# Entry
Amino acid sequence: MRCTRNPHAATPAGMSTQLPVRVRRDASRSSGPASTGSSHAGSVAATPLHAAQPACTWMRLRARATMLSRHSNAARPMRILVIEDDAAIADAIGAALANAGHAVDRLASGRQADAALRDHPYDLVVLDLGLPDVDGAELLRRLRARADAVPVLVATAREELEERVRALDLGADDYLVKPFALREFEARVRALLRRRTTRGVPELALARLRLDLPRRRAHIGTEPVELTPREFGLLEALAARLDRVMSREQLIEALCSWDKTLTDNGLDIAVYRLRRKLDGSGVRIRTVRGLGYLLEAAGD
# Structure
């Protein structure tokens, strides 16, 4: 199975794996399908699945997971839309976001971006104002007119005070002037995502497992756990739906971008490797045949 996207949306170009130290403005410039239908939100066979778990252990685990279930806006890794018509800049920030473990979609057209924002849920939008067809400020105005509260980081060459004030008044959450250092860009992204996903609480604790969501790091006790971006995204998605099944289709949709695919075999490999790394954490990934996977308390 492969992740599919809207056939009418342009497929973005591939991302560069080389990150420049700074993103510079080009002096020549003048200016998925929606989430899979079934959510499987309810618990599956609640009594037989958890009958073997100690009640006190399970209740503590559920209580610690309540923070994420209350504050997360989606049970999936962060999906970010980059709207930028300068290919070099889009390559750099797209690669930086992908290396941080986020699913990244890229578009260079304001019209295509407007359609994508209507059809797909995003956790963050990185918006250039100087787009070739629809001005970024107009795109932002339309977004807020639909009462869409997705955080928007404006990254633009327009440095005038009036432009900054206008964008912030239209509903931008942050404003960054090109050229900018990638480290600053990444810090601003982390701050915006932290506000969206945890309302300022950056860590999730499940038994002995701790997840640092903004920095995308994991620890078992005090020991760091080396996770790939895909493995962290998988763990984050399952942790956000603790004790609830996520289908294979939902996980594949959460873990891939428009220009990348994830096969069933690739998902199985990621689950297998993550299971091994969670040994001793107090939680485990259970396969629910015919439905998908869920994260639950490990047995004694």
